[in-house]
Amino acid sequence: MSAGALIHASVTLGGRCVLEEVSLSVSPGELVALAGPNGAGKSTVLRALAGLAPLSAGEAQLGGTDVKTLSPTQRGRKAAWLAQERASAWSIRVKDLAALGRFAWSGAPYERLAEADRAIVDDALARAGAAALADRPLDALSGGEQARAHLARALAARAPLLAVDEPAAALDLRHQYEAMAVLRAEADLGRSVIAALHDLDAVMLWADRVIVLDQGRVAADAAPRAALNAELLAQVFGVRRRSAGGYEPV
Ligand SMILES: Nc1ncnc2c1ncn2[C@@H]1O[C@H](COP(=O)(O)OP(=O)(O)OP(=O)(O)O)[C@@H](O)[C@H]1O
């Protein structure tokens, strides 16, 4: 059974149809990349999977259950969501932010967590490269450091589905690698990971499959090398590969 799925799901925002009859699923053990140009609907897919974007048609499922029928706590036990925006409206210690990842199991600040939950939070902080930041306030961190703190929160949930929006954005090269490696490891542990990614080289390196969105529809859903062919790159992204490396507009 898939950890997360959309079945003919449509989403309308501000009177515009931003997802149109999208069907996709993520199975245990898979790292699925979600690619597509700006505004294609990647974040909306992740929000829909997490039960955060109301559907105008179709269904979103977590663990085979319609998300509409799940309470917020039940949803939190089935899916962890890493938002694209990493801003925080208040000053919170990094370890308390990571402790929020346990909220669906044990809603408490870091020091009041049970020992087992604290160990999970410490492990998540270490794997997100945020252990050294644990006692610092979030609003006093750089953008990349904040991103690592938020990744720790998502990892601490240990949810079957990890839906992450641009997990490597703002990270330096080493931390980009480590963030992708940790998501790969989550999938290898049997969790289902779906990650919105702009870096198509990272998609090829890390993902088992890529779902390409174009104007709210699925343009491709296949292994990265098969999906990201010259025709699709030109049609959807408006680019071609340069022989010297990288991409250029067609
Ligand atoms: N609250 C909103 N009201 C109206 N339109 C919205 C709203 N939120 C998003 N949209 C539109 O929905 C479409 C899909 O947005 P979404 O954030 O899912 O795209 P994306 O693929 O994640 O883009 P990006 O690569 O820029 O992050 C865009 O055209 C966007 O302008």
The helix/strand series, from N terminus to C terminus, equals: EEEHEEHEHHHEHEHEEHHEE
CATH architecture field: 3-Layer(aba) Sandwich
Radius of gyration: 18 Å
Q: Helical content, roughly? A: 25-40%
Q: Report strand order across the widest sheet.
A: 6-7-8-3-9-10
Sheet/helix structural class: alpha/beta
Low-pLDDT ranges: none
Strand content: 25-35%
Report mean pLDDT, rounded to a whole number.
94
> What is the makeup of the main sheet?
6 strands, mixed
CATH topology group:
Rossmann fold
Pfam families: ABC_tran
Function: Part of the ABC transporter complex HmuTUV involved in hemin import. Responsible for energy coupling to the transport system.
GO molecular function: ATP binding; ATP hydrolysis activity
Keywords: ATP-binding, Nucleotide-binding, Translocase, Transport
Short description:
The protein is an alpha/beta fold and 250 residues long.
